[in-house]
Amino acid sequence: MASSSLHFSTPLRSLYSSPSLRRLPRIPFQASLFSPQPTTRKTLALSTGISGVSGSDSGRFCWRAKASMAGTTTEKGKGKVEVFNSEEDLSVSLAKYTADLANKFSKEKGSFTVVLSGGSLIKSLRKLVEPPYVDSVDWSTWHVFWVDERVVPKDHDDSNYKLAFDGFLSKVPILPGNVYSINDALPAEGAADDYETCLKHLVKSGVISVSTATELPKFDLMLLGMGPDGHVASLFPGHPLVKETERWVTFIKDSPKPPPERITFTFPVINASAHIALVICGAGKAGPVHAALGDGQNSDPLPVQMVSPEGELVWFLDKDAASKL
C-alpha cells in the first residue's frame, strides 16, 4: 500500500510500540431503496421554565436550557436540546447532522475525525448507510475512533467494534486503515496505554486536531450514548475515573456493568471535542435526562452532567427519554 498520512509503507509497529491500527476487509454494501422521509416540527409550550423554539423541518421540538450544567468548570449552559416523536425521526435528523459536519470538516481540512460509542448509538446511525448519504458523503476522509471499548476479542458479542462494524462500518466505504480499534491482544491497562499512544501519534502527524485551550486531542464529532444510570463512555457514577485528569485514555477492571474490563476516554479528552451529540432513547433513561436538563441541582453530578465540550453540545432525545422534562 502506498504511504500517506494514515497509510504506512512499513508497519505502524515500527513507528511506535503496540500498534492500535487494525486493517479489516471491506464488505460490499447494497444500498437500501428507502431514503429518509421528511418530518414536521411542532411548537410546544413548556411549563419547565425553558423557552420553546419553533420551526418547520423536523418532527421534534427543541429548546435551549437556561441553567448552567453542574459539575463543569466553565459556564457553558446545557447545550441545544432536540426531542423527537420517535427514534425513527431522531435517526433521520442525526444522519443529517453527522453528514453535514463530515462535509464541513472534509472541505475545511480534508479529514473528519469521529468518535463512536456502543449501546444503541449504532442503530441510531443507520440512516447514514442509506441514500442520500451513503452515496454523497466523502467516506474517504473519515477517521473512526471509540470513546470506550470492552476488552474482549473483536468478534465477541460484547465488542463495541463488532457492533459498529456489523451495523455501520461494513456498509460504507470508509478506508480500513482509518478505523482505529483497540489492540484486543493486550490486557486492559496495556490496551489503554496503546490506544493513548496511537492518539498521540495521530495528533503529532496532524490527523487529529489539537485544542488551543487545553492542547488535548480535539475530535470533530463525538457521538455519545448514555446508560440508565447516567454513565457515558465507561465513566460510571461514583467511580474514581470520572475525576481522572492526567490520562487521555484509561482503563477500568471493575465496571459495574459487564464485561468488567474496559478502556475509556477521560473527561478532559471528551470535553475537548469540537462537537458532541448525546443520543438518548427510551423511558428507562428519562431519570438521568431529567437530572441533567431539569431545574434541580445535584451536589454529586452524574457523568452525563459532566459532558461540556469546548464547542457545540446537542442532545438528541426521543419523547420517551424526555418524558420527565
From TrEMBL:
Pfam families xrefs: Glucosamine_iso
Domain Glucosamine/galactosamine-6-phosphate isomerase, first and last residues per copy: 86-315
Major enzyme class: hydrolase
Top-level taxon in the UniProt lineage: Eukaryota
Pathway the protein takes part in: Carbohydrate degradation; pentose phosphate pathway; D-ribulose 5-phosphate from D-glucose 6-phosphate (oxidative stage): step 2/3
InterPro entries tied to this protein: 6-phosphogluconolactonase_DevB, 6PGL, Glc/Gal-6P_isomerase, NagB/RpiA_transferase-like
UniProt record similarity statement: Belongs to the glucosamine/galactosamine-6-phosphate isomerase family. 6-phosphogluconolactonase subfamily.
Name of the protein this chain belongs to: Probable 6-phosphogluconolactonase
Organism: Corchorus capsularis (Jute)
